[in-house]
Design a protein that fits this description.
It contains six helices and four strands; from the N terminus they run ββαααββααα. By secondary structure, the protein is mainly alpha-helical. The strands form two sheets. A two-stranded antiparallel ribbon has the order 1-2. A two-stranded antiparallel sheet has the order 3-4. The longest helix is centred in the C-terminal third of the chain and has 33 residues. It starts with 12 loop residues before the first strand and ends in a 6-residue tail after the last helix. About 15% of the residues are buried.
C-alpha cells in the first residue's frame, strides 16, 4: 500500500479545549508513538472509530488506558491482516477479505470485553463473517444466474420439467416386456 496517500497534515490548526488558543498540531510536543498512531488511524479511514473501540479490548482493566506503544503494535498488526488479505490462526492460513475484518472489529468492539492479549478472538469472528459473506454472495450469484436464464428463455423451467418427464416415461417403458 502506498503510504504517501495516508499523510497527516501537521500544520492543521487545533483549538485548546482549556484556553481556546489555536495552534498548529506540529507545535504540540507529542511522542513519536502518538504521532505514529495518528498516521495509522488515518489509514483506517471510515473504520477508525470502531478500530479505536477495539483497542479498548486490550486494556488490562476497563479503567486503565492502553500504552501508546502497545496501541501502535496492535494497529500495525490489524493493518497487516488487511494488507495481506488474511492471517494465520492455529498454524493455518485463512484468506479473509478486508470488509470481513472490519465487520469483525466492529462486532468485537461492541462486546466491551477487556484483557485481550492477542487477536485470536477477532480472527475467529472475521473467519466466520468472511464465510457468511461468501455464502451470501454465492446465493445471490446463483439467483442472478437463474434470473438471467429465465430472461433468455422464459420457458426454460417448463422445458426441463418436460424433459425429465419424458426421460421418466422412457425408463418405465424400457422395463416392460412385450408379450406377443
Amino acid at each position: 500500500m502506498d503510504d504517501r496517500r495516508w499523510t497527516m497534515n501537521l500544520n492543521a490548526k487545533v483549538t485548546c479545549p482549556a484556553c481556546g488558543s489555536e495552534r498548529a498540531l506540529s507545535s504540540f510536543q507529542l511522542s513519536d508513538e502518538i504521532m505514529e498512531i495518528s498516521r495509522l488511524a488515518a489509514r483506517f479511514g471510515k473504520n477508525w472509530a470502531w478500530t479505536e473501540e477495539y483497542l479498548h479490548c486490550f486494556r488490562g482493566q476497563a479503567d486503565k488506558p492502553l500504552r501508546p506503544a502497545r496501541a501502535k503494535i496492535i494497529l500495525e498488526e490489524i493493518l497487516k491482516f488487511i494488507e495481506d488479505g488474511g492471517f494465520s490462526l492455529d498454524k493455518q492460513w485463512h484468506t479473509v477479505r478486508a470488509n470481513a475484518i472490519y465487520e469483525a472489529i466492529r462486532h468485537v468492539a461492541q462486546t466491551n470485553k477487556t484483557g485481550f492479549r492477542n487477536h485470536n478472538y477477532l480472527k475467529k469472528v472475521a473467519i466466520d463473517f468472511n464465510r457468511k459473506m461468501i455464502e451470501k454472495e454465492e446465493k445471490e450469484q446463483g439467483e442472478r444466474a437463474r434470473e438471467a436464464a429465465l430472461r433468455r428463455d422464459p420457458r426454460a423451467a417448463e422445458r426441463v420439467r418436460e424433459m425429465i418427464a419424458r426421460i421418466g416415461d422412457k425408463s418405465k417403458n424400457a422395463g416392460e416386456t412385450v408379450v406377443g
